[in-house]
User: Which sequence fits this backbone?
């Protein structure tokens, strides 16, 4: 007998279990004979018949064979590929419950890792849940048994394989409706077996496709790619080597750009970018996030603000419209160069940009020694603990922290509260990746 659930006497490979929780990656959690089992396709509160996939020493992995007692929050997935494609994990959970699950993950991480709790929970931020993904990477695989080329995300059950999808409801509709056409076109190329991946990036007016090819392309293939771009309105880029090898095939000089209007009017900023640059995946949520960050940061005309992990200037340049001075720091030379170009293009003269690896010691740099009234952090998944070893200075009164990983935010919140004397005034989740278990959040700290 299970300690918490009874086991079915039916087929040996299938068991019945109660789902008591939702894991960080969106799988249901059951306990069978005291051992955790992560069940793909199951939701908290359900009783399911599950089929084992893999057994491990400390946990097992399974999939739903049948839902015996469904959650009231279970909905019919919009995409027919859900469950096979690993691009989404929560399409079977209604939108409000998705947000609630992410809020619980953030709260649990604050309590368990940072030993802190926000004085106020911010209302969750959400935007259009479909067609939101303006940036991503599609895998490509020529499959002889199917007689065609598959283009899509990796399979949920076996990430070694490319999911056989015909369209994608979360990818920007300029591309999401044409996944099958894209695969058919690649299948006509001489180099069909040598196309490893296709990255996509959408600006406000242009969708770019970057074809990573392992062998030089024939003139026939280049013509086919140009024809496909012209027929469907895509800018076509080639990537024969590393990131620096990316170059446009057609048109000669594509322009990728998007506008930010966090407060409207005088706040308007337009950012140009290259197709492999980091930009926020969800354009609608980026605008909402920007507005909330500005509200929480409360930039004043006399403020000096430091923006760390600034990228292209996504936060830096809108902040510059409202303060005396802002400095952005980023580790990637190309992003810093383009941030400076974006500042000049927008007529912004009170923003400076610096190249620095923020995971290494930087306390001796000029920007790190200066007093800053306010600080904005938008680090990658690893968080900002290296920076917090020497920042913020005592002059800093407010910090806004934008996070893509709740565990690192919680850890850093503990550092700010317990070591630097800040108060976690407010925090909340932002649904940057609807239908996935990814938790994006924002927090504000005050002296």
Assistant:
């Amino acid at each position: 007998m299970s300690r918490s659930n009874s086991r079915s006497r039916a087929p040996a490979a299938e068991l019945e279990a109660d789902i008591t929780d939702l894991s960080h990656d969106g799988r249901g959690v059951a306990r069978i004979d005291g051992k955790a089992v992560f069940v793909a396709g199951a939701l908290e509160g359900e009783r399911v018949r599950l089929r084992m996939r893999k057994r491990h020493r400390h946990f097992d992995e399974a999939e739903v064979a049948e839902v015996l007692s469904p959650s009231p929050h279970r909905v019919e997935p919009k995409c027919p590929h859900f469950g096979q494609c690993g691009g989404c994990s929560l399409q079977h959970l209604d939108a409000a419950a998705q947000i609630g699950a992410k809020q619980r993950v953030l709260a649990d991480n604050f309590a368990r890792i940072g030993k802190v709790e926000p004085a106020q929970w911010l209302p969750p931020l959400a935007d259009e849940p479909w067609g939101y993904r303006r940036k991503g990477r599609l895998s490509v695989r020529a499959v002889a048994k199917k007689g065609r080329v598959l283009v899509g995300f990796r399979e949920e059950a076996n990430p070694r394989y490319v999911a056989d999808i015909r369209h994608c409801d979360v990818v920007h509709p300029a591309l999401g409706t044409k996944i099958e056409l894209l695969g058919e076109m690649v299948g006509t190329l001489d180099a069909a077996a040598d196309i490893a991946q296709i990255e996509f990036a959408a600006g406000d007016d242009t969708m770019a496709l970057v074809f990573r090819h392992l062998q030089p392309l024939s003139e026939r293939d280049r013509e086919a790619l140009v024809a496909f771009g012209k027929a469907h309105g895509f800018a076509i880029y080639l990537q024969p080597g590393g990131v620096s090898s990316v170059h446009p095939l057609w048109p000669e000089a594509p322009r990728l750009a998007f506008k930010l209007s966090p407060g409207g009017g005088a706040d308007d900023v337009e950012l140009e970018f290259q197709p492999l640059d980091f930009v926020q995946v969800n354009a609608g949520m980026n605008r909402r996030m920007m507005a909330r960050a500005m509200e929480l940061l409360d930039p004043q005309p006399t403020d000096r603000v430091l923006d760390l992990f600034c990228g292209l200037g996504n936060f830096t340049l809108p902040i510059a419209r409202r303060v005396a001075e802002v400095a952005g720091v980023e580790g990637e030379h190309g992003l810093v160069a383009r941030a400076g170009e974006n500042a000049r293009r927008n007529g912004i003269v009170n923003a400076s940009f610096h190249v620095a690896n923020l995971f290494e010691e930087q306390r001796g740099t000029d920007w790190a020694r200066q007093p800053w009234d306010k600080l904005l952090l938008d680090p990658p998944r690893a968080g900002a603990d290296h920076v917090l070893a020497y920042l913020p200075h005592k002059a800093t009164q407010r910090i806004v922290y934008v996070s893509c990983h709740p565990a690192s935010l919680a850890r850093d919140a503990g550092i700010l509260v317990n070591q630097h004397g800040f108060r976690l005034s407010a925090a909340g989740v932002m649904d940057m990746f609807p239908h996935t278990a990814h938790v994006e959040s924002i927090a504000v700290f005050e002296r």
